[in-house]
Amino acid sequence: MFYFVTSWVLFLQGISSMSSLAVSYFYKNTLQVEPALLSTITSLTALPWTIKPLYGFLSDGWPILGYRRKPYLMISGILGSVSWFCMAVFVNDVWFGFVCMFIASMGMAVSNVIAEGMVVEKSRGQTQEFASHLQAFVHGAQAIGGIIAAYFGGFLLQYLADRHMFMLCAIFPLTIIVVALISPEVRFDGDLTAIRADMAGKLKELWEAFQHPQIYKPVAFVFMLNATPATGATWFYFYTNVLHFSSTFLGTINVVGAICSLGGVLIFGNFLANTPFRPILIWSTIISTVFGLTQLALVFRWNREWGIPDAAFCIGESAILSVLGWINTMPILVLAARLCPVGMEATMYALIMSVNNLGGVIGTQFGALITWGLGVTDSNLDNFWILVLICNLSTVLPLVFIGWIPPDGEDYGAEITAESERNQHKQKA
């Protein structure tokens, strides 16, 4: 049942991307939003993912009716469903839409924290290989959900209006409530007052654990890796205004990307699970940058001179970058799980992944600022190539600090826990 619950929550996280194309069309065509603002709005909706420690902290130390997992899963399902219903029925304003998507994102983030906390608990005391395979399994479910969402997200827009897609997306979060009811969890019958009184102690322990170089240096590297400028939603405007791609073909590109993302997960799980993190991160980042620079050929239309159709170029590029993207991501997920001290797995893992997500938000905001500064708009994409160049070249800059990543797969969380226990014994002595 553990595997079903965790994989289903991650599957729904993948399927939730079904709304992404509908959101882009809705903001571009209905609300007349420019690329920089759309990038800003869509990235800000990811902010709930930057406060994941709060959800993990509440889940670990503040049970509801004696349960640490079930109630929070149910709350997340309700938040997501209500938010997408409002998008479908009531939204006619840019910022009201932002609020709805923000709350929906929060609901998904809460369920993600619960599932990942369960995965971290399962990984505790296991080998790097076991932890790698477990991460590959649950995130494989996410990739499968992404594949389904990518196809139907584009295909259904031929027959459904944007708002109808939002209504469809309101159904999926309701299944989390069912999953919560069957989730294997033993009711806690202890003293809730004592648990809540211990929250301050947990915060202190979290802060002390985070002060270890074995934790804060890798986390800082992960942040920098994600905080480089990103093109954000501007590619959507290029695809629709310049290349005139249909929603169906945009969905096809997303399908290829999602399938290849699953391929990246499988490659990591089967061939790279025992490989040190540093070389994986170095080479996947460098190769991604090289292939990312080939996007300039599409922007300048060189691919047409070479006899490569726009559609074929975009599909091939999406395939390669998606595989490399997940090969680059998986070591970070495994490392994050193995940095968590015993007793605060959900909270620490959520904190590490929040820093990762915050980096992504900041990177997209940087990209939106550059987009605005270059004067790139819905009707003027002349300087888009400069944005693409800056965003790709900047991705290799964090590799200067690759030494902050552990050279092997040691369980630093267990080491830090053991060190803290030794220090406590010394103080008592």
Automatic annotation (TrEMBL):
Keywords: Membrane, Transmembrane, Transmembrane helix, Transport. Pfam families: BT1 (PF03092). The keyword Transmembrane helix applies. GO terms for cellular component: membrane. It is found in: Membrane. It is a multi-pass membrane protein. It comes from the Eukaryota. Belongs to the major facilitator superfamily. Folate-biopterin transporter (TC 2.A.71) family. This is Major facilitator superfamily (MFS) profile domain-containing protein. The lineage of its organism: Eukaryota, Cryptophyceae, Pyrenomonadales, Geminigeraceae, Guillardia.
